[in-house]
Amino acid sequence: MASCATGTEAAIRAAACRDGDAAAHLKLISVLVIFLTSVLGISGPVLLARYFQGKPLYDKAVLVIKCFAAGVILSTSLVHVLPEAFESLADCQVSSRHPWKDFPFAGLVTLIGVITALLVDLTASEHMGHGGGGGGGGGMEYIPVGGEAVGGLEMKEGKFGADLEIQERKEEEIVKMKQRLVSQVLEIGIIFHSVIIGVTMGMSQNQCTIRPLIAALSFHQIFEGLGLGGCIAQAGFKAGTVVYMCLMFAVTTPLGIVLGMMIFAATGYDDQNPNALIMEGLLGSLSSGILIYMALVDLIALDFFHNKMLTTADESGSKLKKLCFVALVLGSASMSLLALWA
């Protein structure tokens, strides 16, 4: 268990960094900078998708972007969010009290996040399976007796071809609905994470911590925006929904910073207050569980094992699969590297 005692030198250095006016000035700058970088990150894949839609390489490019996005989101959950949640609940001000010292709550809440994401997935999949029309009779066809055999056979073949085309369109629509669900649940998990980042930064009075965080979080939002934007681009939302989802991502962290500043002004709680640490740890664990599930199940497994472009046995499918794997690794590595600063 960590000790709450601090050395004299560390205490003097911490006191010198605590400047409310300077911290408030930096936080106001960060609101604008993080908003602009968030817009840049999430709008990039969306605008590219709109521009290249219908072009020969469009589907492959979106798939590669989505694999990069999956790596970013997986790294965000495992390298950024989850360790910070454990660290918050392991702080000596929290872990020295009941019930926090008796049970690993960070792991439990992460598990709850995974199971919750699975439940949402199952419920939506069941709804999509039962939705969608189709004629009555459970797929049985009424074939009239009589008439020429050849003519009847041609009618059956024509009917079968039409039914097959309808079935393919229905399957494509189900895939689109699944992609939209993934994007929406993914955004919920990322918004949780963004609120935590923003509130924590807004409550902090340590200018020495805030200054490097502005640059690090700017890159963080760009990569996270690329991840979410890639999923939104593939889901095929209407323009109004796309704008709304992009705006929600862009404003969440800045609004979290403002909310953190308001909490500090109203309560005097800073980012080291035990109650703030508990809330940060629990919300971080929940969002981490959601993001882990979405990255592994709904992004990586779905594309690498069920996407038609990656499951073909020809040479082009093999090359595309390797390219997607490289994109996944690059996304994971780039986001993991940011853990050195934020």
Automatic annotation (TrEMBL):
The chain crosses the membrane at residues 28-49, 61-83, 103-120, 185-204, 210-230, 242-269, 281-302, 323-341. InterPro entries: ZIP, Zn/Fe_permease_fun/pln. Pfam families: Zip. It is a multi-pass membrane protein. One of its GO terms (molecular function) is zinc ion transmembrane transporter activity. Keywords: Ion transport, Membrane, Transmembrane, Transmembrane helix, Transport. It is found in: Membrane. One of its GO terms (cellular component) is plasma membrane. NCBIfam families: zip. Belongs to the ZIP transporter (TC 2.A.5) family. This is Zinc transporter 6, chloroplastic. It comes from Brassica cretica (Mustard). The lineage of its organism: Eukaryota, Viridiplantae, Streptophyta, Embryophyta, Tracheophyta.
